[in-house]
Amino acid sequence: GNSVTQMEGPVTLSEEAFLTxxxxxxxxxxxxxxxxxxxxxxxxxxxxxATKADDKGSNKGFEATYRKETxxxxxxxxxxxxxxxxxxFCALLAGGTSYGKLTFGQGTILTVHP
Amino acid sequence: EPExxxxxxxxxxxxxxxxxxxxVPISNHLYFYWYRQILGQKVEFLVSFYNNEIxxxxxxxxxxxxxxxxxxxxxxxxxxxxxxxxxAMYFCASNRxxxxxxxxxxxxxxxxxxxx
Lengths: 114, 116
Hints:
Chain A has strands spanning 3-6, 11-14, 19-21, 23-26, 32-38, 45-50, 56-59, 62-65, 75-77, 86-93, 103-104, 108-113. The termini of chain A are far apart. Chain A is mostly beta strands. The model of chain A has no long low-confidence stretch (mean pLDDT 92). By secondary structure, chain B is mainly beta. Chain B has strands at 5-7, 10-13, 19-24, 31-37, 43-50, 53-57, 65-68, 75-79, 88-95, 106-107, 111-115. In chain B, a hairpin with a 6-residue loop joins strand 7 and strand 8 (75-79). The radius of gyration of chain B is 13 Å and the shape is globular. Chain B starts with a strand and ends with a strand.
């Protein structure tokens, strides 16, 4: 079956530190990959996506590259801000599935201190 | 900016009671979903709904669960006889038909259900 594994959290960083949140996946076919973010008191929202191997998704200074050879989609940001404190979810949409049936990782809580 | 809204934000109920969680999806969206997250576990797909019928459901979505779009705006999840293990955060989501297989869902803030 399809599955997504994220690095264990929580992650605590100082402002301007470099962020990496690891994500690996198992899927049949050619999945699309996503990072969703949930800020306090809000719903999950799409942060970035990549639909094929070697694609790089980017948004708000965050980046992730779809690596088929390592089945990974690690999230990175060069300099985090306090406002980046949130829960980050890696997810996949398997090829051939119905629209919107996402498989999520367990989420990683990020806290950024001033 | 349009958003998905869910009510209640938190509901506490006794085991065996019926619960209805409500969602108002974004108005021009046509696909609707329920996901849930048990504390400390992954967000899990429950059901997708399109054109007034279920298009796909997970094995979690057994006969105790049902969904309905009773009017043009609401989308509800009913749990007929709640169990302790139904305690979770329930997320409603929607997307546009034109979004195709983009995977970009628009989520509500969630409804936390606590079964005692």
